[in-house]
Amino acid sequence: MPATWGIEEYGDFCLTLSRNLTPEQVLTTFGADPGEARLMSASQIESEIEMTETSALLGAGDTGTWSFCIEISNPIGFADVILKNLCGDSEAFALSRSGHSMTTFKYAHAGRLSESFEPRNPQTVRGDSHHAFFQRIQKMSPDTSAAMASLQVMSEYIGAEIPPSLLNGPLLTANLENVDRALLARPVPDFHPPAPPGTRSVLGRHLGTIG
């Protein structure tokens, strides 16, 4: 994953990757109507769409057999219900960072969260994925940020890079207004694996109130 992707310039963000879904199906999973989505570049989005604290802006595209959705500001793609549906009977990733600088990595397979953690924080590791994404990130240079190390691991796994030119669009773009974040925050039965004794939840930090 090229360092020039500029992920460190963002505050809140979420990048999801889902195998065997189209960009239109990805938008549907988020609750958007793909028929109302528009192909827009990053510059068009900046000048034509006004974001609010209750909206979620989605940009969907694809690379090979994987589709992605990039959200900058107020992301929702890390929510259990969305990630489970993105996964389906295949697999999906969600890499997110909150404005409080907490980076979270999630990998779901066959409708279940297989691995989740805060990169480089072993106390947060949950799941039993045989891919051992946490260990892969741990082996990278400590000079590489948690977010960039995570992006590199994801890129290596899917066998494709997501360069800045791809993320800047044009992407199939939808703006979800008045997202019910309380609903999205509800746990999904049988999605999370049990936490090992003595570990705390990856969502254990207080993140403040969502407007």
Return residue spans where pLDDT drops below 50 for at least 5 consecutive residues.
201-211
Compute the average pLDDT: 85
- Strand ordering within the main sheet: 2-9-3-4-1-5-6-7-8
Ends apart, CA distance between termini:
33 Å
Tell me the total number of β-strands: 9
Shape: globular
Number of helices: 7
Please describe the biggest sheet, giving its number of strands, its sense, and whether it closes into a barrel.
Answer: 9 strands, antiparallel
Gyration radius from CA atoms, angstroms: 16 Å
Q: Which percent bin holds the helix content?
A: 10-25%
Q: In what range is the share of β-strand residues?
A: 25-35%
- By secondary-structure content and strand pairing, the structural class works out as alpha+beta
Structural commentary:
With 211 residues, this protein is α+β, with helices and mostly antiparallel strands. The chain is built from 7 helices and 9 strands, in the order E-H-E-H-E-E-H-E-E-E-E-H-H-H-E-H. The chain has a 9-stranded antiparallel beta sheet, sandwiched between helices. Strand 6 and strand 7 (112-118) form a beta hairpin. The N and C termini lie far apart (33 Å).
